[in-house]
Write a structure and sequence with these properties.
Blueprint (H helix, E strand, L loop, with lengths): L48 H7 L5 H14 L4 H9 L3 H9 L9 H15 L2 H26 L36 H13 L5 H11 L3 H31 L105 H22 L10
Helix pairs in contact: 1-5, 2-5, 3-4, 8-9, 9-10
The chain binds a DNA duplex through helix 4, helix 5 and helix 9.
Organism: Pygocentrus nattereri (Red-bellied piranha)
Subcellular location: Nucleus
Pfam families: CUT, Homeodomain
DNA sequence: TAACAGTCAATATT
DNA sequence: AATATTGACTGTTA
């Protein structure tokens, strides 16, 4: 009952915004590559991607990314090329997307776009060929450039070469103002401190933020950003855990261990992992939570019977519940007919089942949940309680 | 207005 | 070289 069947008139906005992002700084390279393009891909049905996204049935983002990774490695295609060419995203973004895709129902329309593109790409094996061709062409162009600039003119900048020792990381002190942002890098201890603060209060008040910034000697905005990013990334970790759990549960234990999504947690992926303290019963000398002043922070004493929100609806992705192609209009390719393949146990080195830190993350998130509950509590309509 | 969702892009790792 | 991580930025959303 969630999705309305398609066939609707779709009120589309013919906004041709593509690339709202970066205000195109200074481009200038690649004379022969009209790449930035997201266009070109008008589905077989002649629909724009946005339209397709709008009518797309639920897709299994986990399965799609898994398949994409498989295809890429099998054909020696890098994610950079794939991302830039097929998805119109940068390498880092693609890496992130492939490693920890959010479940379909948690994605916004915009967020679903890359997945629809992936699905589309996978739907036609010829696409792989095309990408391989591109790879070759790129290499060729690269070689060519090297040659011409090596034996011939040596135009490009490089005032000081050879004379430099080591590597000349030529930051250049050009006349231009140093608008080069230094790129803040938080020290491990700073991260620790922030994580600790997060555990106390996932949503620090401006005042608290101010304090933290001062104490750590960071810009206020850095602290704010850190919290936003941390919350958001932790949330994502939880999503993938849900997926994994669902998959594991669905596949039952007897059969195939199969899916072992990459290496889930381990040391720590993005965050929630530093807080080790777990465990073993022996209580460590210090307290588990060491926090100077627990003074204020009345702490939301009232914590209604919290339940693990992990019990989310959604269906089991694992169990074959695939969506069916919406319309029979099979013009061209089976649009959304899943190319899904059997759980071919691809390599995947099933790492040790060290998911103990799953607990930790969840625990770390309790505060977050409490916060949301409190927020929800102020709402009359329970149906608004979204998690 | 704060929080979020998506990304970018500079660094870090592998 | 290819990938992974992550602070910051832009556009939405409630």
């Amino acid at each position: 009952m969630s999705v309305k069947s398609l066939g609707e008139p779709l009120g589309l906005q013919a906004s041709g915004h593509e690339q709202p992002q970066s205000s195109e700084p200074s481009e200038g390279s690649q004379p022969s590559t009209p790449l930035p393009l997201p266009l070109s891909t008008l589905g077989p049905t002649g629909l724009s991607i946005q339209e397709m996204v709008a009518m797309s049935p639920e897709l299994d983002t986990y399965t799609i990314t898994k398949k994409v990774k498989e295809v890429l490695t099998d054909n020696n295609l890098g994610q950079r090329l794939f991302g830039e060419t097929i998805l119109g995203l940068t390498q880092g973004s693609v890496s992130d997307l492939l490693a920890r895709p959010k479940p379909w129902h948690k994605l916004s329309l915009k967020g679903r776009e890359p997945f629809v593109r992936m699905q589309l790409w996978l739907s036609d094996p010829r696409n792989v060929e095309k990408l391989m061709d591109m790879k070759r062409m790129e290499k060729k162009a690269y070689m060519k450039r090297r040659h011409s600039s090596m034996s011939d003119t040596q135009p490009v900048e490089s005032g000081l070469v050879g004379t430099d020792f080591g590597q000349s990381s030529s930051p250049q002190h050009h006349p231009q103002q140093q608008l080069k942002k230094p790129r803040v890098v938080l020290a491990p201890e700073e991260k620790e401190a922030l994580k600790r603060a997060y555990q106390q209060k996932p949503y620090p008040s401006p005042k608290t933020i101010e304090e933290l910034a001062t104490q750590l000697n960071l810009k206020t905005s850095t602290v704010i950003n850190w919290f936003h990013n941390y919350r958001s990334r932790i949330r994502r970790e939880l999503f993938i855990e849900e997926i994994q759990a669902a998959g594991a549960a669905a596949s039952g234990e007897g059969g195939s261990p199969s899916v072992r999504p990459g290496k889930a947690s381990e040391g720590d992926s993005c965050d929630g992992t530093e807080m080790d303290a777990v465990a073993d019963d022996s209580k460590p000398p210090g307290s588990t939570l060491e926090e100077p002043s627990a003074a204020k922070a009345p702490t939301p004493s009232h914590s209604p019977t919290l339940r693990d929100p992990t019990t989310s609806a959604a269906e089991g992705p694992g169990t074959s519940g695939h969506q069916v192609p919406p319309q029979g209009s099979s013009s061209g390719l089976g649009l959304f007919g899943f190319p899904e393949t059997a759980p071919s146990a691809s390599s995947s080195t099933s790492r040790n089942p060290k998911d103990s830190n799953l607990r930790k993350k969840k625990a770390a998130n309790l505060n977050n949940i409490i916060h949301r509950l409190e927020k929800a509590a102020s709402k009359e309509d329970p149906s608004e309680w979204e998690f």
